[in-house]
Amino acid sequence: MKPPYKITGKILKLVASISEKIGEVNSAHLSKPPTELRKKNRIKTIHSSLEIEGNTLSIEQITAIVENKRVIGPKKYILEVKNAIAVYDYLDKLNPFSFDSFCEAHRILMNGLIESAGKLRSKSVGIVKGSELAHIAPPSKMLKSLMNDLFEYLKNSDDLILIKSCVFHYEMEFIHPFIDGNGRMGRLWQTLILKYSYPVFEYLPIETLIKVRQVQYYESLRKSDDSGESTVFIEFILEIILESLEELLNIQNVNLTNIDRINIFKSIIKKDYFSRREYLMNFREISTATASRDLKFAVENGLIEKIGNKNTSRYKYKINLE
Description:
It is built from 14 helices and 4 strands. By secondary structure, the protein is mainly alpha-helical. β1 and β2 form a beta hairpin. α1 (9-27) runs parallel beside α11 (231-249), α2 (35-52) packs across α9 and α4 (75-89) runs antiparallel to α5.
């Protein structure tokens, strides 16, 4: 059964704007941002998503943990960060349309934090905001069927992936399938759903903007609960997605390294053979000599194979690059 929501004029306008921005991102070679920017955005994502849940570690402390440096702080908070790093590093192995994969991600995210990591809750829960009971989640006996229905919608609905990712995020929060970690899972899984169609979302810090607008985030959840449909929440999250893409495009003087260019071109050419000219056509800002140096570096480091010489040279990627 399709979850309830309406397609409003605002949603249509936001979807059109987001699609336009994704086109601009691809044209600017930002579908997989430069290495340093990816690292910074991943750290910002982890910091914001955990800060929403009460983790007080700073960006500097999280950066140190990412770099395997010693950090002094509450053990629980440090473990939350390590688990978040582990699950984001594992994204490529997760299937956004699989309930089993969803539970596996929760197990990684909450490992050592709760006894039931990766398992649906076995008791009823209510969500309290301040001194008020904000939401009573469905009974535990309904969880498996509700989550199966939600994944069926995700896999089989003809809705746009942008819409489905928002609907899933809201419905999962409403169902509240786990005893803890639901907020983190909702934001993580929306990222994974979007990444399936648009690689740029793997490193886009949507959680950072959600944190900035945290009051509105919870207000949109409440309004959707009150109305019995996810329309308000969809509008809010689409605004966040658009803003995050605009921020990425506003980054000035993005300097791609040779590894950045090699990574980007692999996602374009995939397994086909290509020439230096074809490589150069995708990076018009570099010289022929720079393109030659890129390809020479890739060959010498075992990233691509080369056949032929000089004007007859052809290249092909040998391994997955990160």
